[in-house]
Design brief:
By secondary structure, the chain is an alpha/beta fold. It has helices at about 1-25, 75, 85-95, 115-125, 170-175, 175-190, 200-210, 220-235, 255-270, 275-280, 300-315; strands at about 30, 40-45, 50-55, 65-70, 105, 135-140, 150, 155-160, 240, 275, 290, 295. It has a single domain (about 30-165, about 195-320), classed as 3-Layer(aba) Sandwich (Rossmann fold). The chain contains 11 helices and 12 strands. A hairpin with a 7-residue loop joins strand 2 (about 40-45) and strand 3 (about 50-55). It starts with a helix and ends in an 18-residue tail after the last helix.
Length: about 325
């Protein structure tokens, strides 16, 4: 009798948890962000943006030459307690050490796709017509053709391509769907933080293969061409930084069709690009891991790609980046 009672109570607890998760989620995928009282995002009046980071609201480009970083969480510093360790500040520090007078302005917003990045860049340039940036670095990865995210009242980024459940689904409760998703998410996170990811690389890449359909990227290609037109009109140099999804870090470069596909997309749009995945392929699991749907890089990982990015920014020199300051001896 005791065992039967324990079994019934355990079953009731599982179903209770499932009901609670369904009531809380209401959507099939959601990415938790900060606590509500410290939420770094607000809903934007611009419906094309959806939401925006408080850090990029109402910015004014300054008199010092500025390089604009446009992208998503991978350069926004998402997951960093100390944002000074993220890509923007580290790049500015290196450029300063090399004698350049250059400010790096981070316009990246976690969860943004390419269409949102385009709209944010348009707004910043339109609102600062009298200031010409020294250059634009745009990030691109396999998620940039995905649907946009929405911001819920409790500051959660929600995939807008999914439809909310109409009440609780009894069939879903019986299948414990929400609990399955929760357990699966935790397992994937643990795998990405461990050496087991090395054995799953080919399977993870196969799961990403459907993203390589060009029809899926038609809107993204149009956005890239629009970005090129905007910067060309103002004579602003631009390049695309191709960052990887975490699955791409688990396979050899020659077995990675995603990066080749993205290079082709960028070339068709008439833009220059650099493949940063080539520098990140040998990272340890504590230097790059997947959390939710976001790839987090450590400061050590950023240091792997900084030399390539610095050389790229230096190539912008003749188009607006202030040259290195002369040394005390008069030599540069």
């Amino acid at each position: 009798m005791r065992n039967v009672t324990i079994f019934i109570l355990s079953l009731a607890t599982l179903f209770g948890l499932e009901l609670g998760l369904q009531e809380r989620e209401r959507v099939s995928f959601a990415l938790p962000t900060a606590e509500r009282e410290t939420c770094p995002y607000i809903d934007s009046k611009d419906l094309n943006l959806g939401y925006v980071s408080k850090a990029v609201i109402g910015i004014e480009l300054g008199q010092v030459p500025e390089l604009l970083l446009v992208g998503d969480s991978i350069i926004a510093g998402d997951g960093f307690e100390d944002k000074s360790q993220s890509l923007g500040p580290r790049l500015e520090q290196v450029m300063t050490q090399k004698g350049y007078s250059l400010r790096v302005r981070n316009l990246a917003v976690p969860g943004y796709n390419l269409s949102q990045q385009l709209r944010l860049l348009e707004k910043v340039l339109d609102e600062n017509k009298h200031h010409r940036p020294a250059g634009v670095l745009l990030t691109l990865n396999a998620g940039d053709a995905d649907s946009t995210f929405k911001l819920t009242a409790d500051c959660r980024l929600v995939d807008s391509s999914t439809k909310p459940h109409r009440g609780r689904s009894i069939a879903a409760v019986l299948r414990l769907e929400s609990l399955q998703r929760l357990v699966f998410a935790k397992i994937i996170l643990a795998i990405n933080r461990s050496s087991f990811s090395d054995h799953l690389g080919s399977r993870l890449m196969a799961a990403l293969q459907p993203r390589l359909a060009e029809r899926r990227w038609q809107k993204a290609i149009q956005d890239l061409k629009r970005i090129r037109a905007i910067v060309n009109e103002r004579n602003i140099p631009i390049a695309v930084l191709i960052f990887p999804y975490s699955a791409e870090l688990t396979v050899p470069i020659d077995e990675n069709p995603i990066v080749r596909f993205l290079v082709t997309i960028v070339t068709k749009a008439g833009l220059e690009s650099i493949r940063l995945v080539d520098r990140l392929i040998d990272l340890n699991t504590d230097e790059a891991f997947l959390d939710g749907n976001a790839l987090h890089l450590s400061p050590a990982a950023y240091d792997q790609v900084l030399p390539d990015i610095v050389r790229l920014v230096e190539s912008f020199n003749e188009m607006g980046v202030s040259p290195p300051l002369p040394s005390a001896s008069g030599h540069q």
